[in-house]
Design a protein that fits this description.
heterodimer, A: about 210 residues, mainly alpha, Rna Polymerase Sigma Factor, Chain: A, Arc Repressor Mutant, subunit A, B: about 260 residues, alpha+beta
């Protein structure tokens, strides 16, 4: 692990927004030319041209994030697996439409994954299922901490979430990890719609600055 | 005007968290298209949300990789986003998906008529349902989620439409997508029911049945579409008459049985 576990991280090497999905323990040493070392955006570019090997490499990089996020929202590993498959196939199908100047590949994949998870969870049947296991505000935050593999990133996000006000943190966590709309979040927290929107935006801005996202 | 803009601007947070119901999202997307500063902010917030995604990472079961790679090998890819008005669709993956389905794979080609027929068939009922849904915020967001899922099913590359007569009168129409694991169900001309009763939709599988949805009360002879998710190959769609709140298991003989 070397120094990777430090919460403040060695900054010299860090690309904002890209710090995860690439730094794996033991992989840091020599730059090999294979797919494993290639920039994710470049890999996606190749995937867009039908390169199946590149897609395998993309899968290695993003599947854990997609699966973890989807499972976090759905809470059902079997459904999460199905939805993750849909997400990865969306990545395959639409890779040629990824536009690097619109955002990082990680954000692109995360958006697809979250979207798919939320589609599933907001549909009628899943909603009924979820009623028996409704998330309590504090819970999602702690579960996440348990489930995370990317230790460094987890620590950073956790620390930064901790720097938000309680309402900011709860509304963001419920919306993102819980898959609730802001109206539902307002209902769960018993606060006004306008307040909910503001807390989400202010909280995300604070989180963004804390995480050093540019 | 200024306060309205400011209000719109606060939607950047929920938008980046994907917490906007479809109506609000469409409104905010229109705003985004005309506001460079907002787009910049949204990008930063989406990157932030992606960091939360990374923090939740869990390795998926190993079998998933093989399945995904095998499935990809036989899945047609989409060309790069076209220039022109539709290009905007590529900016956000979920819109890209719909645009893609419209212009993409061979399966999508015959889909356009399906979507047209359906949206025509569903439109009148949907309008009526819209008024009902305005009762509460909660119902409203459910309705919007349903509309969103409906669009996903109708534009799925593998969407298939089936129609069948219902015992006792009326016609049921199903559009399903195994890819989306979901189907949309609507009906026309079902007989009216006494107060306290409703039509309940079921998914019956080898391992038993599960309630999928209660049909909304008909408007102009049609019920607005309901979505049932988690469909599996070999499932049968059934319709029964049940007490208004729905039953956990069918209590009357099915008046429709459709293999999907």
């Amino acid at each position: 692990m070397k120094n990777v576990g430090m919460t403040d991280g060695p900054t010299g090497h860090r690309v904002p927004g890209h710090s995860w999905g690439r730094a794996r323990p033991g992989e840091s040493a020599p730059a090999r030319p294979g797919p494993a070392e290639t920039d994710l955006g470049t890999l996606l570019n190749r995937v867009g041209r039908g390169d199946e090997e590149a897609f395998g490499a993309v899968y290695e990089r993003v599947a854990a994030t997609a699966f973890g996020l989807v499972q976090r929202v759905l809470r059902d590993p079997a459904q999460a697996e199905e939805v993750t498959q849909e997400v990865m196939l969306d990545v395959w199908r639409t890779a040629a439409r990824f536009e690097p100047d619109r955002g990082s590949p990680q954000a692109w994949v995360a958006t697809i994954a979250h979207r798919r998870a939320v589609d599933r969870v907001r549909s009628v049947q899943a909603a009924a299922r979820r009623d028996d296991q409704a998330a309590r505000p504090g819970e999602a935050y702690d579960d996440v901490a348990e489930a995370v593999e990317a230790r460094l990133e987890r620590e950073r996000v956790r620390r930064c979430l901790g720097s938000l006000t309680e309402l900011q943190r709860e509304s963001i966590v419920l919306a993102y990890y819980g898959g609730y709309t802001y109206r539902e979040v307002a209902g769960l927290l018993g606060i006004a719609l306008g307040t909910t929107k503001t807390r989400m935006r202010d909280g995300l801005i604070r989180l963004r600055d804390c995480l050093g996202v540019t | 005007m200024a306060s309205r803009r400011a209000d719109l601007h606060t939607l950047a947070g929920p938008f980046a968290l994907n917490a906007l119901p479809p109506g609000d999202r469409a409104r905010f997307e229109r705003h985004l298209a005309a506001c460079d500063a907002c787009e910049q902010e949204v990008r930063g917030l989406q990157e932030t949300a992606a960091r939360m995604a990374a923090a939740a990472a869990v390795p998926p079961p190993g079998r998933l990789r093989d399945r995904v790679l095998a499935e990809a090998a036989r899945t047609r890819q989409l060309p790069p986003a076209p220039a022109g008005p539709e290009a905007a669709g590529a900016r956000w993956p979920w819109r890209a998906r719909r645009v893609a389905a419209r212009r993409g794979s061979p399966g999508a080609r015959w889909l356009r008529p399906v979507a047209l027929v359906l949206s025509a068939a569903f439109a009148a009922a949907a309008v009526a349902f819209g008024f009902v849904a305005l009762d509460t915020q909660h119902t409203l967001s459910q309705a919007q989620a349903r509309d969103h899922m409906l669009a996903a099913v109708l534009t799925a590359p593998d969407a298939k439409m089936m129609s069948a007569p219902v015992t006792g009168g009326g016609t049921a129409t199903v559009v399903m997508s195994h890819r989306e694991h979901a189907l949309a169900f609507s009906s026309a001309g079902l007989p009216g029911l006494p107060a306290g009763q409703g039509y309940e939709l079921w998914l019956m599988g080898p391992s038993g049945g599960r309630p999928a949805a209660m049909l909304p009360h008909p408007a102009h002879g049609m019920t607005s579409p309901v979505i049932a998710t988690g469909i599996r190959t070999g499932d049968t769609v059934e319709l029964t008459v049940e007490p208004d709140g729905g039953a956990p298991h069918p209590t009357t003989a099915p008046i429709l049985r459709l293999s999907i």
